[in-house]
Amino acid sequence: MVKYRGFRKARASVLAVDERQKLETLTRDEKTANRTLTQLSERQQGLEEKIVVRKNDLSAQAVKKEEVCWPFHDSFDFALLLSLDSWRIK
User: Fold this and answer.
1) What pTM was computed for the model?
2) How many C-beta atoms lie closer than 10 Å to residue 78's C-beta?
3) Which of 8, 30, 38, 78 could make an S-S bridge to 72, C-beta 3.0–4.6 Å?
4) Helix (H, G, I), strand (E, B) or coil at 71
5) How many other CB atoms sit within 10 Å of the CB of residue 72?
6) Please, are residues 75 and 69 in contact by the beta-carbon 8 Å criterion?
């Protein structure tokens, strides 16, 4: 009976150590996951900001292109302009 109690105590001690080690492992894994999540969130935010900037740049470029090409709505107008001597640089 004494041996059985000693065995139970030893077994309980081993189980307690195992549980503590598992908890420490889970805690480390959780910290690592949180750091990774933070990094990925920051990266995603940066990429979303770049998307907004690129869309704004594209809109601005389209407006500028429209302003530059305004008199030449089609290729016929542009070809006609090129054919006129008054528009050519001499």
Assistant:
1) 0.53
2) 13
3) 78
4) coil
5) 14
6) no
